[in-house]
């Protein structure tokens, strides 16, 4: 079971603005916050997301093929998360819409280039 996912960041403030907006739409806030690390979610709740300066002091980089999927409650929330992402420094990787049978999603990157999506399983996937 995943407890939380961490993204490296080179700009804590840009990451904070981006993830604050998405967390707000998903009904959660910051659960941990210090000079180098912010985590969003609820203690004891669903897995959270964190942005941190890398512990080794090197620049944060993007993992090729790595993506975190944020489960939305309905198609409208997928759209709102996507819009919040783009309005807060994110970039488009695929507008909201159906992605094959039984799957609805939107894809975007955070200000550091990490890839995420907001998704909803709408029925049997085939």
From TrEMBL:
Residues 1-121 form the VOC domain. It comes from Parvularcula marina. InterPro entries: Glyas_Bleomycin-R_OHBP_Dase, Glyas_Fos-R_dOase_dom, VOC_core. It holds the Pfam family Glyoxalase. It comes from the Bacteria. This is VOC family protein.
């Amino acid at each position: 079971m995943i407890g939380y996912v961490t993204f490296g960041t080179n700009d804590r403030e840009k990451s904070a603005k981006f993830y604050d907006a998405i967390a707000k739409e998903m009904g959660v806030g910051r659960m941990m916050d210090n000079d180098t690390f912010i985590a969003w979610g609820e203690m004891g709740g669903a897995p959270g997301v964190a942005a941190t300066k890398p512990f080794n002091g090197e620049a944060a980089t993007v993992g090729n093929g790595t993506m975190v999927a944020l489960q939305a409650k309905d198609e409208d929330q997928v759209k709102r998360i996507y819009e919040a992402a783009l309005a807060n420094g994110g970039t488009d990787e695929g507008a909201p819409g159906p992605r094959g049978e039984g799957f609805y999603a939107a894809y975007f990157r955070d200000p550091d280039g990490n890839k995420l999506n907001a998704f909803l399983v709408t029925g049997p996937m085939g």
